[in-house]
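Can't paste images in this forum, so I'm doing it all in text. The chain is below; anyone willing to post the predicted structure tokens underneath?
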Amino acid sequence: MTHIGSAAGEHATEGPEARRFAVRWAGLTDTGFRRQHNEDSLVTQPPVFAVADGMGGHSHGDLASKAVVEHLGGLAGLEAVEPIDVVDALRAATDEIERLGDGDGAAGTTVTGCAFAIHEGAPHFAVFNVGDSRTYAMLGERLTRITTDHSVVQELIDAGLLTEEEAETHPEANVVTRGVGAGIDPVPDYFLLPIMPGLRLLVCSDGLTKEVHDVDIERMLWEHEEPAAAAEALVAAALDHGGRDNVSVIVVDVTRAPTVEDVDRTVPRTTLRDEEPGRP
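Text version of the structure:
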């Protein structure tokens, strides 16, 4: 397990009033009860907050997730991130992961997270994911899943061949269709969310979402105002429900944002999916 950045902190941007905002965050991880090693890694270092869930055995998985968060952590100091910055970091991590192979099987990792971005002159979160780790947004009392799992069961759900409930016990529930590693060019999905007052983001590995239902995640995020308290409650809930996998969570709160005249308790977003990212 590798954690880049501070486990908890605050950050305020500078510049024109229309672009100023501030966030606070907390990140937490636990090995769980059935795994001997923690293959999750985190980066909580502005402008990036991300969780990587390693695959391929305790040695390879840990090193794969470490490579991803270290390269994403290399974006530290940027005021805003472009999609190509994330892709370049994931490509560099892929090259590093490729060198990990020693005949014991391929290493790889999922990753999801958010980064500060500017879209049409306004501050946004650029949310990205590869695999089945997830990022959620909460505004008011409503929790919205932003990312879509890259997994066999998600494809079956999308095709109407499987329900969400059936997916939980499907024999291929842990099989992902995209990842970072194995020499394959990483293909993230991207979503742009306006940074607005009261917005809370949750970035997590599937060690949380396979143990705790979204309705309970929503309730705990609502009940705990402080990011650290919310993170602790979520990890504790995953452990209480069995702790069958490593569990990692990052809670990011917007504490100051440009004025939004009409917040209608929805989370507007622009989706940039399956496109080759690049700078404008």
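Residues 58-73 form the longest helix (16 residues). The radius of gyration is 18 Å.
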